[in-house]
Amino acid sequence: MTKSVFHNVTIFDGTGSDPYAGSVLIQNDRIASIVRGDQEIDAPDARVFDGRGRFLMPGMTEAHTHFSWNDQPSLSAIQFMPPEEHILWCVRVAKRYLDMGWTSAIGAAAAKPRLDVVLRNAVNAGEFPGPRYLAGSQEITTIGGLGDNTLPHLPFEALSFGSVCSGPEEIRRSARTFIKYGVDHLKINLSGEYIAGLPAELSPFSEEEVAMLAAEAKRYGKRVAAHARSSESVKQCVRHGLELVYHASFADEEALDMLEANKDKHFVAPGIGWLVRTCFNASEYGITPEVAAKMGYKRELEIASETLSKMHKRGIRILPGGDYGFAWLPHGTNANDLQYFVDYIGMTPKEALLAATKLGGQIMMRPNELGQLREGFIADVVLIDGNPLEDLSILTDPNRIALVMKGGVIQKECRDVRPPSAALHIASEDRPLVDEGVRKAMH
């Protein structure tokens, strides 16, 4: 039996309680005991970590993850990476997430059909370090929809970003194919996206097509995630029971009412970091604030801020993560979402941290063993140098992520801490064949 004790730490347990001083005993992969104050834990054969008052919290969950997005400035540039290099990229990025305290993640779509599945299996087998991972499919789209980047002069779809379908039977075939590959859930693009030249308020799928996907998912016991910016697409999610709602920027009052009435069934991962950084941090790649406004992103950010604030007040579950892996929001900087939740949605820092921890256990379908520091729960813990409730930006600094433990096994220790800007530097150092403009922005 392996034992570890975290002594003299400030415990944020993810239950909603205020932090308190105490110690934690971990046996094998579980939290065995938690004591308050300076009471000592009697475990003479344990490895003892003196936290010196540092912040001990549950591992975080990234609810809208694209490991195969390779920090490039376009969907096509992501897709063009050959599959052999692409899986190696995913392996490296998975470790980066773990090093930054993200011990669980939901795959929001893979750039190629089996990337998520292969990565998940390798992590589960202990071949490579990475978060607990639920693997998504490639994006299921329709002709002319988001993810259809086929070219009219080429007679095949091998280079398409998504699985292009038209009609319920093609949806059925696509769903069954991904289920055969072993995905944990399916992903469908129910709305448009400005960067792809499609209005975000576009809803291209028919009710019959969405119903078919929902039926096939239910038949095989799979959940469905949906790219759903438009109000109608959010309503389709609720009508057809698609559990994971991504974006939801333009949800109107009827859509909000529907979500609230079914808030125990749905999670919203808005990807607000994508909106913020596309509006204000993408000039290096030709998307100046003026261009972003013309594209529609400034308007969407303003509407999404109001919409998500209403969701939060209604008690609809909102989780961090989304579309990190583009050049102007590289992997490793995901915790920026927590501050955006405070600034744009009106959460308190504690609520933002609970969204990443307690709600993370729920979206991972393990609410009774993940996302909280409680006796009997899985020992996914992160030791932070500083108090994120006073400054959430601490969680974006790898130099402040002092220790990461997943399932009782230490994945990163203080001596492995990276330089202060590593969340950005790694994004360029690990990336093969990168545009020079992309590389400059990482430094």
UniProtKB/TrEMBL annotation:
The Amidohydrolase-related domain covers 55-409
What GO MF terms are annotated?
hydrolase activity, acting on carbon-nitrogen (but not peptide) bonds
Q: Does the keyword Transcription apply?
A: no
Per the record's keyword annotation, is Cell wall biogenesis/degradation included, yes or no? no
**One matching Pfam family:** Amidohydro_1
Q: Which gene encodes it?
A: xaa-pro
Q: Which UniProt keywords apply?
A: Plasmid
Protein's recorded name: Aryldialkylphosphatase-related protein
> SUPFAM superfamilies, alphabetically?
Composite domain of metallo-dependent hydrolases (SSF51338), Metallo-dependent hydrolases (SSF51556)
